[in-house]
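Bump. Still looking for Six-hairpin glycosidase-like structure tokens.
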Amino acid sequence: MSLDDRIKEKAKARGPAYVPRTRHLNPDGTATYTNRLFLEESPYLLQHAHNPVNWHPWGEEAMALAKETNRPLFVSIGYATCHWCHVMEEESFEDVEIAEFLNTHFVPVKVDREERPDIDAIYMGAVQVLTGGGGWPLNVFLTPDGKPFYGGTYFPARDGDRPPHPGFLTVLKGLAEVYEKEREKVDLSASQLTQAIDRLGGGQESGTLPDRAWVDKAVALFSQSYDPSFGGTRGAPKFPATLPVQLLLRAHQRTGIGAYRHMAEHTLTAMADGGIHDQAGGGFHRYSTDPKWLVPHFEKMLYDNALLVSAYVEGFLATENPRFKTVAEATLAYLLREMEDPAGGFYSATDADSLTPDGHKEEGYFFTWSKAELDAALPGDSWAAVLDHFSLTGVPHFEGRYIPHIRRDVKETAKKHGLDVAELEALLDNAREILRQARTARQAPLTDKKIIAAWNGLTISAFARAGRAFGNQKYLDAAERTARFVLTCLTRDGRLHRSRLEGLGPLGFLEDYTFVIAGFIDLFEATGDATWLTRALHLQGETQRLFASEKGGYHMTGSDGEALITREKPGTDGALPSGNSVAAMNLFRLYALTGDAALLTQGLGTVSAFLAADRSPAPYATLVAALDFHLAGPKALLLILPETPSSKDTKAVSTLASLYAPYTVTAPLREGDDTKNMEAHLPAAKGKVVLDGAPTLYPCKEGTCGLPVSDPGAFGKAVLES
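Sorry for the wait, here they are.
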């Protein structure tokens, strides 16, 4: 079937409701231009389906055309909710002159980084080598065999548009000329750059395991970068500080040094108070553009919110600060209300941009307020304290509009306005719902409804941890729904896939496996359902089979995946923990439960493949946390419940769940069939029984269990003593 026929068939399938996203329209409203991306399912690729640029999806067809025509590939990588991707599309990819030049001198390729993190990681590495920075849109120029020779991020369309950046058309003309006249130089540069990213992405051969001093060094580094005024790390942009916060809380647990707890608690509070936190609707935006957490980049990512829930749950357990529980619950409510697919699973993101009443796109419009809008939603003097507490008076914060945020403790605001704290808190809760409902009349930002396995794994963890810590069955039900969705709708022939929209996406990557495994372990700890431990162990075996490196650690792509110019072995954290760091933590947790020495060996090999004495620990927060967990000598907590359920079970489970015990893994099992059926996976469960008909805790370490404890009041001592 010809390309034209395939496009016509797809247009018929999409139906009359389909609206082309372009300014180039025929008089009848149809698109003037349609390229191969129209045949794709990715929301990001579809956004570019009607550019005048003759885009190709990544694949053999584009590579073959580049070789056949001896043209370089222009590969542009982004994602559906990326603000600057939209800007560059509007300025450059919708520009007919630029499109014609691209189509003539290059083979243009679009990549959704969320579907193909392997491609993104390789070429992000190239741009970082070239420029010292990175971001999206990521624009790289490749030889026909896929080797990069030039790249950058956002380019304005023409010289002078956004000084001092060179115009994209000027860059294209210069590169086309160099490629035509100095091909040997281009090929040499491409080979050298490919070698550089191969070295950067490969980790090292497993060697000596770092000791406790290395963990202390990491904690000291995070302490030194701490912003004493606003929490988090100094400077801007400021990203959610989930990973260092958890490391600091654990350092306080281990050492008793109060400064570590203060830094973590201050950071969690500052993020919760800031404009980065959606005060009306719950959830967090991508990052803050300033040091104060005030003006965010307004997109919302599933992974950020899942990681933040886990951080706030841990913060609540470590400090007993009720605000952290409230923030976690509001974030989970947002996820359930706005991000859960009816069929199961959670969507990936919402856009930063939304339409104003006059039809123009503006970043943050949906989440911000004019004075007139506030007067209409919260009229009269009775809301004065609310407007004051949410900083909705005085000079607007962002393009003439207000961003709700908190500058003082609720007690101070209550005192200032002559109110009881409880009275003010009731007013604030009411106002949040009024503002949330009022903005539903606005055009909501685009939701990218792609369901990504890795990010849903993080979400399983978030709901499971919150459900366990807060004793909330609704959260546990959500975690189990999502876990079953992963098993049924993101898996085919036993192989986990990366994503699902209308159909299954690419084969799953390392992070898809490791994040889902972590979610299953958390779900087992929260429910005691052996299904999830069994599934976690099976997926860990598959991870070893598909991704293991001979030098220790794991590759990003499976042995059955597409061969690219290098096979990445990710170790450093970015917006997400690295796949290897989560793998290491999974292995140590599973070893603590099962006593399987092979799991310990694999975990140690993973850590030592990246952490070395001469490396800075700063980019390895999650891997440091895994090392910290191992060095602490983690315990498996076997909670044996009587065969016949009773109210005592609830007290025992909730008491254990309320402890801040980051160096433990819990196995709640019911006496009888549960303990017998789990003996193969949990040898320590053999022969374990309840005492005096009451739930009984057995703290175990490396296969040896301590004295059983049946008094919930004594659980804390049994768990926390060395």
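The longest strand covers residues 635-641.

Edit: fixed formatting.
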